[in-house]
Amino acid sequence: MDDKQDDDADFDTITATSPLKSKEDTDGIPDHLREEEEEENDDSDSDDAGLLDLECQMASGLDLSTRQKRGIRKYRHALNSLKPYRTAKAPKDELPEATAGFFSLLTYAWLTPIMWKIYKKGSGFITNMRCSDKNRAEINSERLEKLWKEELKRKGPEKASFGWVIFRAVRTRLFFGGITFVLSVSFSFFAPAIVLNRLLKILSDREKFDVGYGVMLVIIISVMEFCRTLMFALGWITNYTTGVRLRAATLSLIYKKILKLRSLKNKSVGELVNLCSNDGQRVFEAAAIGPLLIGGPVVLLYGVVYTVYLIGPWALVGSATYLAFYPFMAMISKLTAYYRRKGIKITDKRVRMMSELLTCIKLIKMYAWEVPFTKKISGIRSDERHILEKAAIVQGISTSSAPMVPVMASAFVILAHVLTGNDLTAAQAFTLLAVFNSMRFALGVIPYAVRAIAEALVSFTRCKSVLLMEDIKPHASQITNPDHVIVLKKASFGWDASSSKEGNNMKAKSIFILYFLLTVANGKSKNGKIEEKQRLQDNEEVADTNPDVIQTLTDLNFVLEKGKLIGVCGSVGCGKSSLISAVMGRMVLLSGKVAVKGSIAYVSQQAWIMNASARENILFGQVYDEEKYKNVVHACSLEEDFKDFVDGDMTEIGERGINMSGGQKQRISLARAVYADKDVYLLDDPLSAVDIHVGRHIFSQCLIKCLKGKTILFVTHQLQYLSHCDGIIVMNDGQMIESGKHDELTKNNGEYANLITTYYSKEESDSEEEGEEFRERLGSSPKSPRKRTFSGTRQRNSYGRERTMSSTSNHSQRGAANGVDRQISTMSAMSDNSGKQPDQNAGKLIVAEEKAKGKVTASTYWNYVQSAGGICVALFVFLIYLISVGVQSGTSWWLSYWINQGSGNTTVEMMLGNTTVNRTSTNIRHNPDINFYAMIYGLCIVVVLFSTLFRTFLFMKVTLHASSKMHDTIFRKVLSCPMKFFDTTPVGRIINRFSSDMDEIDIRLPGSAEVFLMNILTIIFALISICYVSLWFLIALVPLIATFIVLNVIFTSGVRELKRLDATTRSPLLSHVTASIQGISTIHAFGKSQEFLDRFYRLMDTNSVPFFLFYSSNRWLAVRLDLLSALVIGITGLLVILTYESMTPALAGMAMAFAIQMTGLFQFTIRMAIDTEARFVSVERLQHYSKEVESEAPAVIKNNRPISTWPHDGSISFKKVKMRYRENLPYALRGVSFDVLPREKIGIVGRSGSGKSSLGVALFRLVEADSGTIFIDKMDISSIGLDDLRSKLAIIPQDPVLFVGTVRYNLDPFQQYTDPQLWDALEKCHIKETIVSLEQQLDSPVVENGENFSVGERQLMCLARALLRHSKILMLDEATAAIDTETDALVQTTIKEAFADCTMLIIAHRLNTVLNCSRILVMEDGKIVEYGTPSSLTSNPKSKFKMMLDATEGQHEPR
């Protein structure tokens, strides 16, 4: 007991801060975290909420408090909008909507100056505008977060409803929007129901007709239409504003949660990006369209009551038809949600695989795997299309049935009423038609509202699943001993397992380790002991016993003292990287205690680089201090690189550091950590990617001098540095098996001594003379103290957030993306042999996203038609629509004709007093042909029904065929682009085209186009019908057409430009989300979560401006067209009044019914035309990649294909090869000439950026040579197809690439080999034991980027993949950099044996790996400076290779 109390004295319960997580980050942890923390935070939560409310009110004038308020004070800010005119003006750079008066909101007058300016000057100025404070993402997300916390507290995680939280957040606005819509449909209903009926009645009685009374009725109809328009406009502006706020709030809340996650578990990066891309749109649509659902029941109630009053009980047949529509729509809603859930899973899978494929594009190209992977994507797309077809049929039936309901209801009522012997007058018939048509819109929007709500419910479920994921926990203990920085006491850790619980044992580490844990080499570790007694205080930590956690590190006991440099070594997969992850809090603590004191800097094994300048990557939001910065750059050996860069350290680094060598990326990552000036440094094998002399410089100048006084945990496979460490930890199978100083461990003859012996004996076998010297130095230990080379105050809170990232970027972390890292920097500024100087803009890498201008071109439409099946298919679809809509409109004409026929001049007996007389009847029930007229009327309804179903099915098939063909064709085109396209185009931008834009083309474009086609044909038939009545009615259309032409010319361009701007501002948002997920470990370690969140807020607000303006501009046009249409009704009514003597009541009724129908329909059709064109922007954006980007050389040149056995010998010859990565850059290879004999092993060495990997780039023709020739077996490789060339070569990349799938799939993606062949390859690469230990062995899952395997294990699997391919020519690009010395020795033996008959080009930093090569090629500045046998080079004292060897020896001397 006493011992335990002594041991516990170092720990205390954490009460305030944590190096991993601030108070702000831990506030409001969900129920799955410790309940005690919630109870402790309850009091502070209320105080924080009050402070937050006050801050937000001061910033925006909004009251965001969720506390109950009484009276009208709760809405005082919103009520300001009801003032007719407001004197307050918005700042010039802010949208004026928030300060607009009531009349300005009603008419969208606030938008007129913006639309005019877009027409005159383009949309560029909008990028400098900001949304109003009330619509800002930060403010709305904070409020939504508080409501979500309340919901969690009240109901618990399982029963909490995110949908209910959304409703609570905006319920008042939703109710208000619903009420305005009810008022609008009320005006729309009562205008024909009461006023039109009265007008037709007085027209029927010509003797008592009063022109003045008729004019008054026409004015009343016009005024009611005017009021309908304004109420509708008010409802839309309310709903759009609500939707924009909800969209921003929801996405911000999700992103904020992502920044807190410890693990993605069963979520993929693609799924989360898709959540932000598409589900945000679903939330907006639910808020914008959902409230329109309330109008249906209201107008149905009106219709039941009025139609019964109008013609009697048979009107209930029509009401029943409408009523039956609601359960039908309920079924549609369920089906829509069902197919949405199924479709979204397949879409997520497609987007994830495309993202993975594009990120690993270099390896895909080098292995000539474009076609097989494209087929795989096409297969997923085919499954997606299958679900989309079903969803489209359901939605098409829903959309098409809504316009049919009034037609069918009218037909059923009229037929039932007449055929039962009742009379029907023109006033009754056309009032009934007008009433049912007025109900048409209220019911017509139901399918859209139902779909919007159904899809939003699916999105709410997806959002909730993310919000309930587990946050990263702060360490629950803290260190009280001032000399200790990291303490682990009997600590065991594990990784989260996949939710599917697929079998992976401890050696596999975990099924679903965070995709974004960029350097987690998920190994197995148990802590060995560092002999230091610790005194731990009494608060025993509650360990996580979650069965979904797979134990990885076991029983770790370890103390890291302040200012010490501790080295960590061990074999591949032993748990070294997992140890660092455990210290950072990214693993689950299963038992024991862990604590860290002080701030943390982290350098990952695979560097995470942002798409920003080199300086911005190093500063990482810190204030620029020139002297400190220069010292850091020198310590990390970046001075020469920056001199070579076109724009120095201000040169832009591409996505994932794609235009930098592996060593440059690693050094910038290290410089970022050093500049941050933190207390604790966690370095995960930072020297594996740099060459020997650079590594020595960094170790001595950076780790020993710059970081003197800092506490460093240094994981490495470079054993030569361990003798300089203050202590060493040796790990094996998740445990610390040895710890101590270099001298002690070498004398113990344990695991460490074996590793050292293996390392130096390997070098001895390579060079006996060098080995002797190394053995003499075996026991050396560091003598010189670590001394800092720069000073300066800590600037932990003074960073400038504006410096964090570039706005156009997609920041991806995965080193695997590079496939083979480019060792010659593509940013070199050195002048080339041609004397040309680099372009002044060469420092700029990522090209701005293209944005077309003007109208969508005819070629875009034509290409879409061609994708749909050609002009014949398009004409056939149009013909079917023409027949369907023509018959539907013809029913009204036939009814008018029927009523005009009256009784057919039938005479009936009538009582006149007491006398019976025969008179001609006017009642249509006396018509002897009544059954004929009724049959034709009924048949029209049947034809309408079947033609509607057929056109729905046909349109769905044609449009989805178009989108799928475009998808497959353009994706193949993208994959055939040269590498420079991927260097300069962020993956997020490409993914945006195939996710958001594809979603538009799949779902929204067909919906808009179908409605437009239906409505425009309806209008044409309505105009024909009006002309049939009287040509005078065309006068009423003149102002409508003239105004439309003016509006179309001036303002439709604005709508189109806004749609384009919305798309281009969304790309950086999605890129930022992707980068944040992938770099989350680095972001957490450096405490930059808030900066990235602030960046997201800015990008979200930037996108909200064109997004909101796009939808508002549609309503701007609609209001003006609706007001104009109200005037048209008035003019049409006046013409009816003035010409009443020359027309029948039936014709007058038909004309007025069509005129009233056209008011809403005309503006809606015009808006749908504009909306359809705007949605064709997505087609335009996607087709840009098929038309505008260049392609690589052909995959196969049919008339010049090599024989199947080529290359037979494997000889290689470079003849004066010059190569540059892009036109504005100097040469990376400068006239390189050398020959490689068959089966020779050529070692290629040189400092980082010397051009080593550029040889491989040229050999694989990733970049075509500017001049010179490369021969393989005397065949000019530029004369054959790329597929024929690359399929015959093999490469093992510096950064290993594994795909999501299984071990078998990664070794043999296209099932070409047997299981024995696979096991044989694994055994030769010394990873068979690891795979055998997995529960499912070859079928064991591999997660994204292979994160459930260590980096070393991934490299061994890549080696096995190359071994299976058994190409005659093999290139190894530092393929064993992340492998421990012992395994490296075994692998080198395998390479010598397995590839004995192959020609090999071996790029290496470990010089001992090339000493056995046939010849050694030394590169410098893109030129060959030496080429000879190892013996000839080492015997020459002036040889550069000899100097490099000497430098290697020097590393073992005390410094």
Annotation keywords:
disordered N terminus; alpha/beta; 1455 residues; elongated
What is the element layout, followed by pairings?
Layout: H1 2-7, E1 8-9, E2 11-13, H2 23-26, H3 35-60, H4 76-79, H5 102-107, H6 112-121, H7 137-159, H8 162-204, H9 211-258, H10 269-289, H11 295-311, H12 315-359, H13 361-366, H14 370-419, H15 426-444, H16 446-467, E3 477-479, E4 484-496, E5 525-526, E6 549-561, E7 565-570, H17 576-583, E8 588-596, E9 600-603, H18 614-619, H19 626-635, H20 639-644, H21 662-676, E10 680-684, H22 692-706, E11 711-715, E12 727-732, E13 735-740, H23 742-748, H24 751-766, H25 768-776, H26 858-868, H27 871-901, E14 907-912, E15 915-920, H28 930-975, H29 979-984, H30 987-1029, H31 1034-1078, H32 1080-1085, H33 1089-1138, H34 1145-1187, E16 1212-1219, E17 1229-1236, E18 1241-1245, H35 1252-1259, E19 1267-1272, E20 1275-1276, H36 1282-1286, E21 1289-1292, E22 1301-1302, H37 1303-1307, H38 1315-1324, H39 1328-1332, E23 1341-1342, H40 1351-1365, E24 1369-1373, H41 1381-1394, E25 1399-1403, E26 1415-1420, E27 1423-1428, H42 1430-1435, H43 1440-1450
Parallel strand pairs: 5-6, 7-11, 7-12, 9-10, 10-11, 18-25, 18-26, 21-24, 24-25
Antiparallel strand pairs: 2-3, 4-6, 4-8, 12-13, 14-15, 16-17, 16-19, 19-20, 22-23, 26-27
Helix pairs in contact: 6-31, 7-8, 7-9, 8-9, 8-11, 8-15, 8-34, 9-10, 9-33, 10-12, 10-16, 10-31, 11-12, 11-15, 12-14, 12-16, 12-30, 14-15, 14-16, 14-28, 14-30, 15-27, 15-34, 19-21, 19-22, 23-24, 24-25, 26-28, 26-34, 27-28, 27-30, 27-34, 28-30, 28-34, 30-31, 30-34, 31-33, 31-34, 33-34, 38-40
